[in-house]
Write a structure and sequence with these properties.
It is a single chain. By secondary structure, the chain is of the alpha+beta class. The chain folds into three domains: 15-68 and 155-328, BirA Bifunctional Protein, domain 2 (2-Layer Sandwich), CATH 3.30.930; 85-121, no CATH class; 356-454, 3-Layer(aba) Sandwich (Rossmann fold), CATH 3.40.50. It has helices at 6-15, 37-56, 72-77, 80-83, 147-152, 154-161, 206-223, 271-276, 321-332, 368-382, 397-407, 417-421, 445-454, and strands at 19-21, 33-35, 61-64, 69-71, 85-90, 97-99, 120-123, 126-129, 139-142, 167-176, 191-201, 231-235, 247-255, 258-267, 301-303, 308-310, 313-320, 333-339, 342-347, 358-362, 389-391, 411-415, 426-431, 437-441. The strands form seven sheets. Strands 3-10-11-17-14-13-12 form a seven-stranded mixed β-sheet. It has a five-stranded mixed β-sheet with strand order 21-20-22-23-24, sandwiched between helices. A three-stranded antiparallel β-sheet has the order 4-9-8. Helix 2 packs across helix 9 (321-332). The mean pLDDT is 91.
Length: 455
C-alpha cells in the first residue's frame, strides 16, 4: 500500500536521510527543512528531469538563473507590494495566529475559541536591506517567485538569442514566502524552490497554449510515476483568480493530508511585461494597471506577420520542487507483505529519480579480496554516468537489501566468493521491485546497466 499518513513519510525521511528539520538541535525552525544525503539526490534528479523536459528536449525554450535579491521596483510594478498577502487572524484566548481562510466554523484550530480578531492582510514577502545603511532607499526583498526576473530579463534574452514567438524562458531557483502557518511537512514552507516556465505567445493564441501546457504537464507528472487516479485538474473560478491572471488551472495531487495543488498553470496575459515596460501607451495592453516611469526598456517583440511591435501574453506552468518531492515519495511508498510474518517497505521510485542508482554490496564485510573487487566495480560503473553508485559495507546482505529497498535503489550488485573464484568473474544483480536475482558477468555489467536505465 502507498503512504497513508504524513507520519509514515516523515519517519522514513528522517530515518533514511532524506529530510531533516532545520536547526533540530535547537528545537527547529518552523517551515524550514534541510535535505540530507538522499534528499539532495532526489531533489537534483527531479530538477534534472524538469530541466531536460523543458530545455534540452525542446527547441523553443531557453534557461535563466537570476538573483534572489530583488529590486524593490520590480515588486512594486508587478503588484506584489500591494497584493501579495494572506488574510491573518489572531485568537485572543490562546494567542495563536492563523490564516483566516483556514479557519473552520469560526473557531480557533488550537483551542476552539470563537474570540478571534477581524482578518487583516499580511504581506508574505521577506524584506532586507542592501548596503550598510538601513533606509527606505536600500530596501530590497528576497524574491517571492522566480517569475519576475524572467520578465525583467525578457529583452536581454530576446536580444541574445534572437527568439521569435512562441518561445519560453525556464528557471529553477529559491523563493521565499513568510507563511503565517507553515504546515504539512514540506508541503507549505517559508523557503522553497520553484521550477517555472514563462512561455510567451501572441495575444489571441493564449487560450490554445494554455490548454497545451496543461496536457503537457499532466503527461510529465505521469512520467515521474504519479498515477492518474491520484491527480485532479481544478479550474479556478473567475472570481478567485490572482490579480494577474486571465485563467488558471491547478494540477492537484492526493497528498497524505488531502487533495491539494501540485502545480499551477496560469494565463498571465500581458500583465507582467506590460507593467514592467516603458511607454505602455504605445501598445494595446489588456492588463496593465500601473504607469511605469521607472523602466528603461520596452519589453516587446516584433510580430513578423504584420511587422508590429507587441507585448506578448504569457502562459506559466509553475511547480514547487518540495511539493514534487512529497508527491513522488507519497506515490512510491509501498508496504509489502512477504508472508510468514515478514514485510518490507520499498520506495518504488522511477529509475531516473532514485537517489542511488546502484548499490555494490560485499557478501563479507572487510574481506580484502571482495572489497577490492567492490571498489573496482564501483569505479567502473561511475564512468557510465548513470548517477550515484554506493558501496554498502555492512556485512549483512539481508539488511543491506532492505535498506536499499526502503530508499528506492533499483539494483543491488553483490560481490561474493564466486566472483573471486570463477572465470569469467560474475556478480549477483538483485531487482528492487521483483526481488529477483541473476548472475551477470562483470564484463557485461556496463551494457546490462545501460540497457536497464535507458529502457
Amino acid at each position: 500500500m502507498a503512504a497513508t499518513s504524513m507520519d509514515q513519510l516523515v519517519a522514513l525521511c528522517k530515518r533514511r536521510g532524506f529530510i531533516f528539520q532545520n536547526a533540530d538541535i535547537y528545537g527547529g525552525m518552523q517551515g524550514v527543512y534541510d535535505y540530507g544525503p538522499l534528499g539532495v539526490e532526489l531533489k537534483n534528479n527531479l530538477r534534472q528531469a524538469w530541466w531536460r523536459a523543458m530545455v534540452y528536449e525542446r527547441d523553443d525554450i531557453e534557461g535563466l538563473d537570476a538573483a534572489i535579491l530583488t529590486n524593490r521596483k520590480v515588486l512594486k510594478y508587478s503588484g506584489h507590494e500591494d497584493t501579495f498577502s494572506d488574510p491573518m487572524t489572531d485568537c485572543r484566548k490562546c494567542k495563536g495566529r492563523f490564516r483566516a481562510d483556514h479557519i473552520k466554523d469560526g473557531k480557533c484550530p488550537n483551542c476552539g475559541s470563537t474570540d478571534l480578531t477581524e482578518p487583516r492582510p499580511f504581506n508574505l514577502m521577506f524584506k532586507t536591506m542592501t548596503g550598510p545603511v538601513e533606509n527606505p532607499e536600500n530596501l530590497a526583498y528576497l524574491r517571492p517567485e522566480t517569475a519576475q526576473a524572467i520578465f525583467t530579463q525578457f529583452k536581454n534574452v530576446v536580444d541574445a538569442t534572437s527568439r521569435k514567438l512562441p518561445f519560453g524562458i525556464a528557471q529553477i531557483g529559491k523563493s521565499f514566502r513568510n507563511e503565517i502557518t507553515p504546515r504539512n511537512f514540506i508541503f507549505r514552507v517559508r523557503e522553497f524552490e520553484q521550477a517555472e516556465l514563462e512561455f510567451f505567445v501572441k495575444p489571441g493564441e493564449d487560450e490554445k497554449w494554455h490548454e497545451y501546457w496543461k496536457q503537457n504537464r499532466i503527461a510529465w507528472w505521469k512520467e515521474q510515476g504519479l498515477s492518474e487516479e491520484n491527480m485532479h485538474i481544478y479550474t479556478t473560478p473567475q472570481e478567485d483568480l490572482a490579480h494577474y491572471a486571465k485563467a488558471c488551472c491547478d494540477i492537484e495531487y492526493r497528498f497524505p493530508h488531502g487533495m491539494e495543488e501540485l502545480e499551477g498553470i496560469a494565463n498571465r496575459r500581458d500583465y507582467d511585461l506590460g507593467n514592467h515596460t516603458k511607454g505602455q501607451e504605445e501598445f494595446s495592453l489588456e492588463a496593465h494597471v500601473h504607469a511605469n516611469p521607472d523602466s528603461t526598456q520596452k519589453l516587446c517583440i516584433r510580430d513578423e506577420e504584420n511587422n508590429n511591435w507587441i507585448v506578448p501574453f504569457v502562459i506559466e506552468p509553475s511547480m514547487g520542487i518540495e511539493r514534487a518531492v512529497l508527491a513522488v515519495l507519497t506515490e512510491a511508498y509501498t508496504e509489502e507483505d512477504l508472508g510468514d510474518g515478514n514485510s518490507r517497505i520499498v520506495l518504488k521510485l522511477k529509475k531516473h529519480l532514485a537517489p542511488i542508482k546502484v548499490a555494490v554490496i560485499p557478501l563479507k564485510k572487510n574481506h580484502d579480496g571482495i572489497m577490492n573487487k567492490c571498489h573496482e566495480i564501483k569505479q567502473n560503473l561511475l564512468k557510465l554516468g548513470i548517477g550515484r553508485v554506493a558501496l554498502e559495507n555492512t556485512g549483512n546482505i539481508g539488511k543491506a537489501y532492505r535498506r536499499h529497498d526502503e530508499v528506492g535503489t533499483p539494483l543491488c550488485i553483490t560481490v561474493d566468493f564466486e566472483t573471486l573464484e570463477n572465470s569469467p568473474e560474475s556478480v549477483t544483480v538483485r531487482d528492487r521491485d521483483t526481488m529477483e536475482q541473476k548472475r551477470v558477468n562483470v564484463a557485461d555489467l556496463p551494457n546490462f546497466l545501460r540497457d536497464y536505465f535507458l529502457s
